[in-house]
Amino acid sequence: MSHTVDVPQSIKETLRTFRFKRRNAGSAALIVKINKQKLIMEEVEEFEEISLEDLAEELPENSPRYVVLSYELNHSDGRKSFPLVLINWAPTSSEIGMMTLHASALFDFQAAADVSKVIEVRDGAEGLTKTYLDTQLGVR
Amino acid sequence: MATPEEYQIASVPITSHTFNADRSQLAVSLNSNDAQIMSRQGQEWKVTETLSEHDKLITAIDWAPNSNRIVTASQDRNAYVWQQTTDPHTGRTVWKPTLVLLRINRAATHVKWSPLEDKFAVGSGARAIAICSFDPENDWWVSRLLKKPIRSTVLSVDWHPNNVLLAAGSADMKARVFSAYIKDVDKRPAATVWGEKLPFNTICGEYTSPAGGWVHAVGFSPSGNVLAFASHDSSVSIVYPGGPTIINVRMASLPYVSLIWTAEDSLVAAGHDCQPIVFSGSEAGWQVIGSLDDTTAPKSSGGASRFGASGVGRLNSAAFNTFRNADSRGQSSPVSGQTSTGTELMTVHQNTITNVRPYQSQGGSVTKVSTSGVDGKLVIWNVSNVSGGGGLVPRLSGMNIK
């Protein structure tokens, strides 16, 4: 399979440490972007504990990003779990070239991060809400 | 008394006109897919460049005076931002276009740069207004759409001086004030009479035209505290949001299509009556002051311009004049070759005025305005040269406080 964007070793390390960090409360997020000139993935920022509204504020309105989120999920029976989800942040007002690169590299990034669940958020800040994520993850 | 400067730019309707900062150049769209840049040479305007990139009719042009960029919007659902650069091969300065994807699925109708020239608003037939700003990260123009609660084509837009609020007149008979605040481009605006803390697409005010007509033109006063709109029911409404007080001036003349404020207490409106009318007033009431056009006598200048040196070359040939004279043969022809027949209007403009723009300002108020219309003429008027009565039907109605 052809690889358009490379996933450097440093990103893979960051992903691994992010994945195995112990979490007790709150949602943690790791934002990764594609560097169009060098065609590699780059880490933008990592947040230890962040609310979804703040995360939506941090993400750009007109550029696609990958967000690896350790989401605090409250099940209906009282359990708390922290599943790892990949948010494909791709607002429709982004530049077309970036969107295509982003879409083509999604598969590789997902494999590198080793995350099973991918959630698409295409309409920007309005689309990233708690209710939306909960329904996507199968919790009422 | 300064008479208006009159230029016959073309023999086709002028869809839109806009001047550059020092008024030495003019960008016009002559009912075609191309925009022409004209420079003043002596007493005439000559075409110096043609901007062709659009696939369909250009409906509106705006020239940003400080950053020297032109934005053109067209029926092909796109807008282009033109910038002057030096061509590497020939060394001349050319206008280079940048496409802006508006993401609308109908024609664009109107475009205006914001006061700080970092954004522009495009009204469209897609029941939406596209607010476009430059995204430096991706090096391209990004558009966000203002949709709710517009129910029909947006006919005109105007920016508030604070660079965030936008007024829009639409074919659903309403004039609205929106907040077009873009994160990362605008700083949080100070509170105004229209409201405070305004996220994108907040409605700060919605006003209906009194007898239900399309709102053709909207305009904020120089301070931004008053809104005026002209609608197809031949009325001009002035809104003071503090009260809210809405003052309607119902005219017996034909509807106005374009208006601009000349000072905090006066505005100029023009439209199907072919002459610019001056209104003046305050929160206590508004009246018509008069027309900028002297309509008491047939225009000798109008006659001269038809036979004179200026004008488009094709219309000046001897053969054309023979046919024109043949047309008037048999009718009572008055002195010195002037054909004041029943077909020529008494106003300078011979057809609807579609665009009124400020031409010259002094001390915060506009002293000269420029108008262009369907007759292909561009006329520059002195705002203080008002003649009352004349061609105006002097019937007005007064205040209507809501």
Please, could you describe this protein's structure?
With 140 residues, chain A is of the alpha+beta class. Chain A has one domain: Severin (3-Layer(aba) Sandwich). In chain A, the strands form 2 sheets. Chain A has a 5-stranded mixed sheet with strand order 2-1-3-6-7. The mean pLDDT of chain A is 86. Chain A has 4 helices and 7 strands, in the order αββαββββαβα. Chain A is 31% helix and 29% strand. The termini of chain A are far apart. The longest helix of chain A has 18 residues, at 96-113. Chain B is mainly β and 402 residues long. Chain B folds into 2 domains: 5-16 and 105-296 and 345-397, YVTN repeat-like/Quinoprotein amine dehydrogenase (Methylamine Dehydrogenase, Chain H, 7 Propeller), CATH 2.130.10; 17-100. Chain B has 2 helices and 28 strands. Chain B has helices at 300-307, 318-328, and strands at 5-8, 16-19, 25-29, 34-41, 44-52, 58-64, 69-74, 78-86, 93-101, 108-113, 119-124, 129-135, 140-146, 154-159, 165-170, 174-179, 203-208, 215-220, 227-231, 235-240, 245-250, 256-263, 266-271, 277-282, 285-291, 353-362, 365-373, 377-382. In chain B, strands 1-28-27-26 form a 4-stranded antiparallel sheet, with no helix packed on it. A 4-stranded antiparallel sheet of chain B has the order 2-3-4-5, with no helix packed on it. In chain B, β18 (215-220) and β19 form a beta hairpin. The longest helix of chain B has 11 residues, at 318-328. Mean pLDDT of chain B is 84; it is low at 300-312, 332-340 and 389-402. The A-B interface holds A 60-63, 92-96, 98 and B 101, 103, 135, 137-140, 142-144, 183-184. Chain A: Its main location: cytoplasm. Chain A: One of its GO terms (cellular component) is actin cortical patch. Chain A: It comes from Piloderma croceum (strain F 1598). Chain A: GO terms for molecular function: actin binding; Arp2/3 complex binding. Chain A: Residues 2-137 form the ADF-H domain.
